[in-house]
Sequence to fold (199 residues):
Amino acid sequence: MLDGAQCVFLPPQAQPRWCSICNQTKPPLTQHCYVCKRCVAKQDHHCPWVSGCVGFRNYRYFFLFIFWLWTGCAYAAITMLSARIRRVGVGVRLVEFAFTISVSVFCALSLLLGWHVYLVLTAQTTVEFHRQLGKRPERRRRGETYVNPLDRGWADNWKRALVPRGANGHGVAFNGKMWWLVWMLPLKRAPIGDGVMYF
Fold:
């Protein structure tokens, strides 16, 4: 049984809803994907590149894919730049072409990675961000400010989204030690929580 202090209890308006398309209840933060034709827990977006939805079960792998691709592009750009400066290896045109491609992809990935870092640090998904963005003018008129009930601070948000479940089945891998290093490792462990309650 889980300790109540670890649980994130959502406000009453976030209680399970009914999906009229699937004809079943939807847990909080679940969205129906019209492409996949099913409800996805904590859906971030439908990604044509991975041919499926990015949500609770695979968000960490999506984030790591972007991160390591971004890192690889930076490495390739630096390698090509140093080869160009030293005039080592194959033709100069080929090195310049590879450098241009890697810098271009690096810049595009920097925007995407920066966006998802922001979402992780604020405990949001792309769907939630756009939903709250649409409600912002009405809240401003009423003098209200939105407080995300899942936001536990930058470090805890990062751990909950990207550090895999520990070997004991709950909590953070390595009992919280070295979580800042563990998040980037491709460990095949389930995320923390069950898709209905988030820890």
